[in-house]
Amino acid sequence: MTALGLLLLALGGFAAGSFYIPFKKVRNWAWESYWLVNGVFSWIIMPWLIAILTVPALIHVLREAPPSSIFFSFLFGLLWGIGGLTFGLSMRYLGMSLGYAIALGFCAAFGTIIPPIYKGAFGDLISRVSGLTTLAGVFVCLVGIAICGWAGMSKEKELSDEKKKETIKEFNFVKGLLVAIFAGVMSACMAFGFAAGEPIAKLAVERGAPSLWQNNPVLIVIFAGGFTTNFIWCVFLNIKNRTAKNYLDSRTPLITNYIFSALAGITWYLQFMFYGMGNTKMGKYNFASWSVLMALIIVFSNIWGLIFREWKGTSRRTHGIIFAGILVLILSIFIVGLGNYLAPVEE
User: Fold this and answer.
1) Enclosing domain of residue 134
2) What are φ and ψ of residue 34, in 5° steps?
3) Which of 4, 33, 137, 306 sits at 20 to 30 Å (Cα–Cα) from 258?
4) Residue 201: what pLDDT?
């Protein structure tokens, strides 16, 4: 069961670590324009489409769900939306490797530890070998993330501004660092949204939804909140920067831009679809799914960063650090898996 959960989380990590790539094909559009198109597909179209296909009586589930669960799922979605918004900015200023590592480091820490504390289950974790093993895996995950951040700082010292901007046009370490930290903290609200949406997921199962798909109605509510935040900000920027014309400007490759922005959005959504599925297969300590997902995202994003030569011109030492960070993150996934494997034995 845990192996299936890890596989699904790996698919989610690959999707999340890859979603920004299609944006590289978007031409002559402002960031706010392609980000909004991405959001329509990732936070509105895909969640509803997949939920309709997988959850019987979807509308009844949402109508009958406890108002408090709907409210807090939406609220955490709003807050997560702010994190997602600034996460996109961190990619602009830091690139895929460093941006993911810093933002998701904070996201993993807050999103993994706080839910069990909120539910009053943290004491149970530290009293069991399986719980301590899982927490050790979370700690190793954070160490791996820190190593990736160290590699990024080493890169910052070794390359000139001109070299860094050859692969990351708007590279700005200080601005990107602040944005990435804020994005990571706010993005952790996704984990809280899933926790708040548990009554919705249970109701979906009662209505006949397979347990594997039980989180799909929850995603609709969370993403509605996230889209609200992003829509307001992107429209504001469209007006402020006079970029609303992008959507119909025939002087830009409109069809291509829409296709690749939509592809980015669909890929972005897939990370949470697979996360929602994998979370149901991770057993008693499914709270650790969040840190596993964050670790996998960093692994895949750093691989893409290497492929796109974001580390071009850095020393062998810096390359060694980033590879070490990736290996530590992979190790953390196995440790978390061991913790989940031991949990049923202690029952």
Assistant:
1) 2-346
2) -75, -25
3) 306
4) 94
